[in-house]
Structure to design on (648 residues):
């Protein structure tokens, strides 16, 4: 097996970094001087010029300038900043493979989405409001506002790796689950529908989970006209990217009560500025883009990279390929 | 089919009451003058003397005094106040059947327990603390404290209808699940263990879910000695009855940090007094005995009663029999 030069700026905890060093000791591992967190854009790093493989968040502009670079594994699930004509052309010409880390993030994101849905149906934030204020025993109100998922309809707007995993987690609840995709299809736990079916799906859904990626076709996808199509009293959840929600329209839908609640893990911009009205909008609950996070995130990023490295060494197809 | 006299003090919303009236129109339905909420003890009502069947929360002392009474369906899952020598003797003699509504409550309680567990692993309350105070974007801290259930061990202390349903809901997560019961047994999604195995189970569990009913053997079951056996940093969840937790020991375990968090749906007493220290203990989250609540609770109580009434009319075995 030929020695490969692997460049990385992935943000890893010390144990995971040690694992990566150990497992790639037959190759040459170059670490960028600046490694930032998983969601930050990497800065250009001259040592990447020598790399056969890049792992982390390499500067998108630099990718085409690295003569030996044959494979880039992004340490995130989202890859909007790599979706350029130049990179797509390199991939189409067979000169570069691009992969992401959706295997790492599908699981925590699906669990986060289910945590949001159950926090809504079990009224956990309403109970916590009481706990932090009056200490009243708001027993009858909170019981009456709680709901069983078995009699609910859940619409997954975007049905990739997160949506597919979320449908598996939802299966034992007996809810009706729809997923949005390019083609209609009936799967075991979910009925896939298309944009043509959207008005009916939005009107039927008790819970709308926005899992859309960021691309030109999805920006402000959930706008005032679409919120108008929601079932009154529905819950709205965002796990994908903040750009896919028209936040002014969302605020209006929360203030009018048309939406009973919104649970947002992504916003535009991020961080959400401290004076942004979404922080204090009625029944609006924000987590700080933490849906993909988990204590063993670094370790699983490395596991996923090593899994693909093993396949790359054997010229097997890589998993989680993107931009093809 | 002989006409039966059905007495009820079940607390029902108007639609469910209408359904009950309609579906029992061939019998005689007597409604107590006072119908209270599902968890309150009913008051003695003289019209119950005429009943063949009682549905709701009849006064336990009155049950033995009603000459025609052959079946009582309790409108709750817990039935500690009906567990008397007199009632057990009537059941043992074949003069009375006692049933509860665990079919109605197993589902919402299991969903509530999973909502608690996921709120913990996804750090929803920590994020809400930030939202209600600084509006900081506590991205790295909250991601690092989030966890995947696939690498966690969950111990269900008490494995009846709620535990069994919770194990089904947990199945797709791939967590390791243990349940406490009288006999060891391996089921599809859960390994049943006995009290003899308790120290090892508590030491292994990342999440301990207390689903114990209230009876003399379970009072203060989770005491200081048992909290000492917990894995440091475990989460504790109560869905059963408040009497099964030594709350002073729980407070100490939260204050020392031995328990990372407690999510309590039941307390002793209820309502929890406004000045009770559990309201403000570190990482302690209280819901007001709402785990069994759901918007269609009345309707499902009636459905379950009518299902058993249908069986009673045909002399078929009733479901959810208790005190046998």
């Amino acid at each position: 097996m030929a020695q490969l030069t692997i460049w990385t700026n992935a943000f890893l905890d010390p144990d995971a970094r040690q694992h990566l060093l150990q497992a790639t000791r037959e190759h040459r591992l170059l670490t960028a001087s600046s490694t930032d967190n998983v969601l930050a854009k990497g800065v250009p790093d001259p040592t990447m010029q020598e790399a056969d493989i890049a792992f982390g968040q390499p500067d998108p502009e630099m990718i085409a300038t690295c003569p030996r670079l044959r494979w880039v594994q992004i340490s995130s699930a989202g890859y909007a900043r790599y979706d350029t004509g130049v990179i797509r052309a390199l991939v189409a010409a067979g000169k570069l493979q691009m992969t992401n880390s959706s295997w790492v993030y599908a699981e925590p994101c699906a669990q986060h989405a289910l945590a949001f849905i159950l926090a809504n149906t079990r009224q956990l934030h309403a109970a916590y409001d009481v706990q932090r204020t009056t200490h009243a025993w708001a027993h009858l109100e909170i019981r009456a506002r709680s709901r069983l998922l078995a009699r609910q309809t859940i619409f997954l707007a975007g049905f990739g790796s997160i949506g597919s995993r979320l449908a598996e987690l939802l299966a034992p609840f007996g809810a009706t689950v729809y997923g949005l995709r390019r083609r209609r299809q009936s799967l075991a736990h979910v009925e896939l529908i298309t944009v043509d079916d959207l008005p009916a799906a939005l009107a039927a859904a008790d819970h709308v989970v926005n899992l859309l990626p960021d691309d030109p076709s999805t920006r402000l996808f959930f706008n005032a006209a679409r919120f108008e199509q929601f079932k009154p009293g529905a819950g709205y959840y965002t796990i994908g990217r903040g750009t896919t929600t028209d936040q002014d329209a969302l605020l209006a839908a929360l203030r009018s009560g048309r939406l009973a609640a919104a649970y947002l893990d992504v916003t535009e911009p991020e961080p959400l500025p401290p004076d942004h009205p979404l922080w204090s909008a009625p029944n609006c609950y924000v987590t700080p883009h933490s849906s993909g996070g988990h204590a063993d995130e670094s370790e699983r990023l490395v596991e996923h990279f090593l899994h693909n490295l093993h396949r790359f060494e054997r010229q097997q197809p890589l998993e989680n390929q993107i931009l093809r």
In short: The mean pLDDT of chain B is 95.
